[in-house]
Each structure stands twice: as C-alpha cells, then as structure tokens.
Amino acid sequence: MFVLELSYTAPLDRVDAVMKEHVAWLDEQYAAGVFIASGRKNPRDGGVILAVGDDRAAIEQLAATDPFVVEDVCAYRITEFIATKTSDALAPYRQTL
Predict the structure, then answer these.
(1) What share of the chain is helix, strand, coil (3-state, %, to 5)?
(2) Mind listing the pLDDT tens digit for each residue in 58-82?
C-alpha cells in the first residue's frame, strides 16, 4: 500500500485551473481499483491519496501522469507501507509480513 502526499508548488488559482482534470484522473484510478481514499489536506496546501499496489515504480509512473504534475502545480512524496492491520472494510487490502 502507498501513501501519496501531494504538496502544491504553485498558487491555488493555478491548482484550481487544473482541478477538473485532476479529479477526472482520480476517478480513473478509483475505477481501476488503484486508489481507495483521497482528499485535500487542511490547511489546503496539497492532498493525500491512499493507493494499493505491489510495484512502487508503477505507482511512481502513475503519479507522473497526474495533471497536477503534468502542469507543474504539485510535487509527490510517496511512502510505501505494509498494511498488516485494517478495518473490516479494508480487509481485502491486508498484508502479511
């Protein structure tokens, strides 16, 4: 599992100008089963995405296709972790060591 932390690198008006495309990209990743949660940080200086997958390189490549990255309005920090404990709703994503 991966935590994708987005940090805005441009003013919010530039971020907002790309928001529609970013949300469409998010929707594609939810439909593909890669993303399981996402949202804005508070204060609004970026966002967070929870993603599932076994291949860090694939997640990094996917993040590079985010319109926010393409338009140079955010930077990603990607953290991989092993989800050994989850809520029942996330049981399909539990991992073992």
Answers:
(1) 40, 25, 35
(2) 999 999 999 999 999 999 999 999 9
Q: What is the DSSP string of 29-50?
A: HHHTT-EEEEEE-SSSSEEEEE
Tell me if residue 20 falls in helix, strand or coil: helix
Phi and psi dihedrals of 28, rounded to 5? Answer: -65, -40
Residue 95 · residue 52 · CB < 8 Å: no
* Alpha carbon distance 50, 2 (integer Å): 6
Neighbouring C-alpha atoms within 13 Å toward the C-beta of 6: 27
Integer Cα distance of 60 and 62 in angstroms? 5
